[in-house]
Amino acid sequence: MTSASRAATASGIRAAARRAPLLWALAGVLALGASVAVAVTVGPADIGVADVWSVIVAHLGGDPAAADVTPIRDGIVWDLRLPRTLLAAVCGAGLAVCGAVLQSLLRNPLADPFVLGVSSGASTGAVLVVVLGVGGGALSVPGGAFLGAVGSFALVMLLSHSLGGTPDRVVLAGVAAMQLFSSLTSFVVMTAADAETTRGVLFWLLGSLGGAGWTDVGTGTAVLVLVLAVCLGHGRTLDAFAFGQDAASALGVHVARTRLVLLCATALLTAALVASAGAIGFVGLVLPHAVRALTGPGHARLLPLCALAGAVFLVWVDTLARTVLAPKEVPVGVVTSLIGVPAFVLVLHRTRRAR
């Protein structure tokens, strides 16, 4: 092969590499749109994609009566299935982004909001507001969830630092915090709530999108966009963290400030999602690894594709959760755990072999 041919081949490979993230992003957007459209049609009511589109167009145009469907079907699509499916997409996207950021910040492939106890802390904060009325009405459920998430992560960082601060110690501290806050949540629910409230809260804590409304979708979307923008703005900084804190500092990164900003951002997003859907585990663990294998470690590509992959994943997991035992509903967090635990073990084995 001549030097000119080699140069042309290398140029072609570089061009294909540049196009690959765009192609994956386009495929993700198309897959997400198709998933939402189809998932809304799945259920006991006979509703087609055309009906869904008709309802959406009619409502966005300001005239729900213009939809060529019955009022009951219109209500099923617009008030029940569509906000639930969109909230599933937002939660999946947000959890996947949080997992990718935490894995990079902590240089630990096992980091995610659930394993590190952030979701459990957010659940405790939300339950304290709902069941005990902590805050006297001045503190909202998302506010309580945020304070719980921040408190849990602060405890994890304190414990891991006292134990040496290694990646393994961070995960162990996270597991300890998760058990602590899960126990606190169960104690509060069992001692302070009536039987009916207990059943409802426990089902929500396992991860449930059954109460999704447009307010939840709007709040979750706004927080997701804000946090994703902040994380993308620190994309190169996150790339530098892959080489360690000392290397990042040598490259001009203000390590302590950057870590604080990104940890607070992920805590805020986790809190918003937990307040709307409960604790949904392992999404932030599984999806970043799958996407990273396709796109590489660069966060400018990784984070948007993680968001798309997480959204598609949770849309279908929620669809399965609400239909597999119909008319009963399985908490979506149970399904993600059944999928995530084997993936967690696989990552553990890969981490051990890499050493």
UniProtKB/TrEMBL annotation:
<dbReference type="InterPro" id="IPR000522">
    <property type="entry name" value="ABC_transptr_permease_BtuC"/>
</dbReference>
<protein>
    <submittedName>
        <fullName>Iron ABC transporter permease</fullName>
    </submittedName>
</protein>
<keyword id="KW-0472">Membrane</keyword>
<dbReference type="GO" id="GO:0005886">
    <property type="term" value="C:plasma membrane"/>
</dbReference>
<keyword id="KW-1003">Cell membrane</keyword>
<keyword id="KW-1133">Transmembrane helix</keyword>
<keyword id="KW-0812">Transmembrane</keyword>
<dbReference type="InterPro" id="IPR037294">
    <property type="entry name" value="ABC_BtuC-like"/>
</dbReference>
<dbReference type="GO" id="GO:0033214">
    <property type="term" value="P:siderophore-iron import into cell"/>
</dbReference>
<dbReference type="Pfam" id="PF01032">
    <property type="entry name" value="FecCD"/>
</dbReference>
<keyword id="KW-0813">Transport</keyword>
<dbReference type="GO" id="GO:0022857">
    <property type="term" value="F:transmembrane transporter activity"/>
</dbReference>
<comment type="similarity">
    <text>Belongs to the binding-protein-dependent transport system permease family. FecCD subfamily.</text>
</comment>
